[in-house]
Structures are given as C-alpha cells and as structure tokens.
C-alpha cells in the first residue's frame, strides 16, 4: 500500500527589508568583513559613523563617480574612514592633509578632492596648511570632525576644546579660548563654510553637498560626539546624552540673527556661510601655463616702471 503525504502548508516568508544604507554601500562602501574578525574601528555610538553615512549620501545626491574622488586624511580616530570608502585615498602625516589635497588637485583638476580631518589634525598642527589652502582658494573640500579633544591619544585638550570643560589634560577645566573654525575659514579666504552636528543628520548631508558643489575652498565643521573621552568627563557618558546636548544647545544661523549677542553665547550656531567668489587656484594656474606656452607673457627681468593692475 502506497502512502501519499499531504502537501505541507506553504511557509509564509516575511518580506526582506532593505538594510539601511545598503544602496549607498553598494556604490561607495568598502566595509570590513566582520566574519574575518575585522570590525569598524569606531567606538560603539561614535558620531563618526553618522558622519560617514552623511558623506556618502551627499556623494550620491551629487552623483559622484568614486573613481574620480580622492579623500585625504591625517592622524586621528577618523583616519580609517577613507579605507571604508571605494574612492581613492591618501593617508598623510599629522596635519598635512590640506597640503597633499592641494598637490592632488593641482595635478588633476578634474578630481573631487576631500580632506577628512579631526579638530586637532586640522586646527592645531595642520592650521597653517588649512589657512593657506583657504587663502589660495584651491578647489578642495575640508571636512573637520570636531569632538573637542585628541581622541586617538587619550583625550587631551585641543584648539577647539570649549572653555571651562574637562579633558585629560585640563582636569580642572579648560582656561584657553577655543577656535571658531567657521570664522577662521572665512577670514582666511574660504568661499563656503558650514557648521553642523551629527544630531542634525539631514542638515549635515546638505552642508557637505553644498561644500563639494562649491567652486573653490570650502569647509564643513561637523560636531561629532566622543562620549568616551570627552562626554564622560563632562556629564554625558552615553552617545545619546551628547546627541541630546547638541539638539538642546544648537540654534540655526537665522535664529541667531534674531537673538541678542549674549543669548547666543554657549550655543552652537549651525548653518552655511558664503563669501564673494574669487578666482580658483588650479584654474588660474592652468590659464597661466597656457599663456606662457603660447608666448603671451614674458618673465620679469628686472624693475618695471609700470605698477600692477590689481584685480
């Protein structure tokens, strides 16, 4: 006698939901293989992960080809970020990212060149490179992750540490005044400067997109939580504590314009600021090379009685 098994009820399968960021990862992501024991270097909850996602979202909005993008980094917790992206990368000595980015842009003006830097890397040992890149108006985008401390080396105070706050090397409170990165950039000649936070994720994407689209030197300051080395010492031991702190202590540039100066003290003013367009260095250099090769200009051979016509 032959027995026939009753057909099994068809198993219901839950629809597979796309993973967050999956569409961006497929184009821009070069992620560590956790099955091989390789994990993200960032601490759990670190704001660098949020910032990295904003960067690739901005790239996608612009439609950048990763093969035409170069990131340049120095020393800091963020230094591995370039290796997590499919774009080309250059890893430089501490503070030297703007110098290398300038060389790369001058050698191939068609590339999109972006520096990924920390506040110590960009504003301390690298401050002179930052200032002169802005002065030259070279078409690079500088992204500075500002977590208020030297995160990779133990949490020492740096040039952006807010006054009165605690760090490894200012255990009784910081007595120095901090840099204002946006004002410094604009004063040095940047045509576009933005400040945002990892809490304001969509604003961060727009700020980065605007900086890359700008023709000339641009900078984006991203306030990025380091709850392990700064937050814990200042009453915010969790990532969510610092995100809430950014939320509660930020005002937009439009809101700040309506407030009295004393009401803005202690607040993070987020927004974008622009300056009048100036000639971009790599383009001006190419024009000069073409004129010299065409014999349109001669090198100076001595004193001239004709003063220059400044533009």
Break the fold down into its secondary structure elements and pairings.
Elements: H1 22-28, H2 47-62, E1 69-73, E2 88-91, H3 97-107, E3 112-118, H4 119-125, H5 127-136, E4 141-146, E5 149-150, E6 156-157, H6 181-188, E7 192-197, H7 201-213, E8 218-223, H8 227-231, H9 239-248, E9 250-252, H10 253-257, H11 261-264, E10 268-274, H12 281-293
Parallel strand pairs: 1-2, 1-3, 3-4, 4-8, 7-8, 9-10
Antiparallel strand pairs: 5-6, 7-10
Helix pairs in contact: 2-7, 4-5, 5-6
H/E element order:
HHEEHEHHEEEHEHEHHEHHEH
- Give the helix level as a range of percent: 25-40%
User: How many domains?
Assistant: 1
Radius of gyration: 24 Å
CATH topology: Rossmann fold
Précis, in short:
The protein has 311 residues and is α/β, with parallel strands linked by helices. 35% of the residues lie in helices and 15% in strands.
Description:
With 311 residues, the protein is α/β, with parallel strands linked by helices. The protein has a single domain, classed as Thiamin diphosphate (ThDP)-binding fold, Pyr/PP domains (Rossmann fold, 3-Layer(aba) Sandwich). The chain is 35% helix and 15% strand. The chain contains twelve helices and ten strands. The protein has helices at residues 22-28, 47-62, 97-107, 119-125, 127-136, 181-188, 201-213, 227-231, 239-248, 253-257, 261-264, 281-293; strands at 69-73, 88-91, 112-118, 141-146, 149-150, 156-157, 192-197, 218-223, 250-252, 268-274. An eight-stranded mixed sheet has the order 2-1-3-4-8-7-10-9, with helices on both faces. Helix 4 (119-125) packs across helix 5 (127-136). The longest helix has 16 residues, at 47-62. The radius of gyration is 24 Å and the shape is globular.
């Amino acid at each position: 006698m032959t027995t026939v098994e009753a057909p099994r009820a068809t198993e219901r399968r839950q629809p597979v939901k796309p993973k967050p960021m999956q569409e961006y990862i497929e184009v821009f992501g070069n992620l560590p293989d956790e099955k091989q024991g390789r994990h993200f270097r960032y601490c759990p909850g670190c704001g660098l992960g949020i910032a990295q996602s904003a960067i690739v979202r901005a790239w996608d909005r612009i439609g950048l080809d990763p093969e035409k993008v170069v990131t340049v980094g120095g020393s800091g917790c963020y230094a591995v970020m370039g290796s997590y992206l499919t774009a080309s990368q250059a890893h430089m000595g501490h503070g030297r990212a703007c110098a290398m980015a300038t060389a790369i842009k001058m050698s191939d003006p068609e590339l999109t060149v972006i520096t990924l830097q920390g506040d110590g890397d960009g504003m301390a040992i690298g401050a002179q490179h930052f200032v002169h890149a802005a002065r030259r108006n070279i078409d690079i985008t500088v992204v500075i992750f500002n977590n208020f401390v030297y995160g990779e080396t133990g949490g020492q105070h740096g040039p952006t540490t807010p006054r009165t706050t605690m760090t490894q090397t200012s255990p009784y409170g910081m007595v120095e005044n901090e840099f204002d990165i946006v004002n410094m950039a604009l004063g040095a000649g940047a045509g576009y400067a933005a400040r945002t936070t990892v809490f304001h994720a969509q604003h961060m994407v727009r700020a980065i997109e605007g900086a890359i689209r700008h023709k000339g030197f641009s900078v984006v300051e991203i306030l990025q939580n380091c709850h392990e080395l700064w937050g814990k010492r200042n009453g915010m031991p969790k990532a969510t504590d610092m995100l809430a702190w950014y939320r509660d202590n930020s005002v937009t540039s439009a809101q700040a314009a309506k407030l009295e100066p004393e009401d803005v003290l202690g607040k993070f003013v987020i927004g974008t600021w622009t300056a009048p367009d100036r000639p971009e260095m790599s383009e001006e250099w190419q024009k000069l090379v073409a004129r010299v090769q065409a014999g349109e200009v001669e090198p100076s051979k001595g004193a001239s009685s004709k003063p220059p016509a400044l533009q």
